[in-house]
Design brief:
The structure holds two protein chains of two kinds.
Chain A lengths: L2 E5 L3 E2 L5 E8 L9 E7 L5 E8 L4 E3 L7 E6 L4 E6 L8 E8 L16 E5 L2
Parallel strand pairs in A: 2-10
Antiparallel strand pairs in A: 1-3, 3-8, 4-5, 4-9, 5-6, 7-8, 9-10
Chain B lengths: L3 E4 L2 E4 L5 E7 L7 E6 L6 E5 L3 E2 L7 E6 L2 E6 L9 E6 L5 E2 L3 E5 L1
Parallel strand pairs in B: 2-11
Antiparallel strand pairs in B: 1-3, 3-8, 4-5, 4-9, 5-6, 7-8, 9-10, 9-11
Classes of the chains: A mainly beta, B mainly beta.
Chain lengths: 123, 106
C-alpha cells in the first residue's frame, strides 16, 4: 500500500517561500508511469490543483501559480517537493500531495493522498 | 483550460435516499474523470475512476456514468457514513476539480 506524508513548516511569513516535502513509502518513485501532484484547499473552500511532475521531468502547473511555483523530485529519497515563493495570506491552505496514474495508453486520476498539512501565511 | 461545473453545490437528503450529483465539462474529456469523497479533517478518497469504474473497496451503492461533457455520480441508497463533500476531477488536460457538493442530513 502506497502512503504519502507531507512535512514542512506550518507557518510562513508573507513574501517568503513556502517549502513542503512529500515522502512516499510502500512504492518506488522511479517509474515514469506516475505523476506526483500537489493540491491545496483554502479554509472552507474546494480543492485546487497546484501542479504535478513526472519522473521524466515533465511538469505541469496551475497557470495562476506557475510564475511562483517549483516542483521537484528526488527519487533516491522517495520524496518530491513544493516551493511556492512570494506567498501572501491567500496561500494559507491545507496542502496535499498525491499520486496520479498509472499512465500508459490511458492515464488515471489521483489515487493515494497524504493526510494534508496546514500552512498559514502570517507575520 | 477545462472548467468543471458541479451541481448542486449542496443538498439535503435522508438515509436511504437516492442521490445524484452532476459534473459538466467545458469541453469533451472522453471518460477522463474521477469522483472523490472528502469527510471533514480527512484527505479526499477516490470512489470512481474512468468515469464509471468503481474503486476497489468502495461500496456498490456508488456508481458513475457519463462520457464527453456530462457526468453523474449516483448513491443508490444513502448511508450515514456517506454524508460528506464530493468532488469530480478531470484529468484529460491537466487537472481541474469541480466545485464540490456537500451532502447533508435532512
Amino acid at each position: 500500500q502506497v502512503q504519502l506524508q507531507e512535512s514542512g513548516p506550518g507557518l510562513v511569513k508573507p513574501s517568503q517561500t513556502l517549502s513542503l516535502t512529500c515522502t512516499v513509502s510502500g512504492g518506488s518513485m522511479t517509474s515514469d508511469n506516475f505523476y506526483w501532484t500537489w493540491i491545496r484547499q483554502r479554509p472552507g473552500k474546494g480543492l485546487e490543483y497546484i501542479g504535478y511532475r513526472f519522473n521524466s521531468g515533465d511538469t505541469y502547473s496551475n497557470p495562476s501559480l506557475k510564475s511562483r511555483l517549483e516542483i521537484s523530485i528526488d527519487t533516491s529519497k522517495n520524496q518530491f517537493f513544493l516551493n511556492l515563493n512570494s506567498v501572501t495570506a491567500a496561500d494559507t491552505a491545507i496542502y496535499y500531495c498525491a499520486r496520479g496514474g498509472p499512465c500508459g495508453r490511458d492515464c488515471y486520476p489521483l489515487d493515494f493522498w497524504g493526510q494534508g498539512i496546514l500552512v498559514t501565511v502570517s507575520s | 483550460d477545462i472548467q468543471m461545473t458541479q451541481s448542486p453545490s449542496s443538498l439535503s437528503a435522508s438515509v436511504g435516499d437516492r442521490v445524484t450529483i452532476t459534473c459538466r465539462a467545458s469541453q469533451g474529456i472522453r471518460n477522463d474523470l474521477g469522483w472523490y469523497q472528502q469527510k471533514p479533517g480527512e484527505a479526499p478518497k477516490r470512489l470512481i475512476f474512468a468515469a464509471s469504474s468503481l474503486q476497489s473497496g468502495v461500496p456498490s451503492r456508488f456508481s458513475g456514468s457519463g462520457s464527453g461533457t456530462e457526468f453523474t455520480l449516483t448513491i443508490s441508497s444513502l448511508q450515514p457514513e456517506d454524508f460528506a463533500t464530493y468532488y469530480c476531477l478531470q484529468h484529460h488536460s491537466y487537472l481541474t476539480f469541480g466545485g464540490g457538493t456537500k451532502v447533508e442530513l435532512k
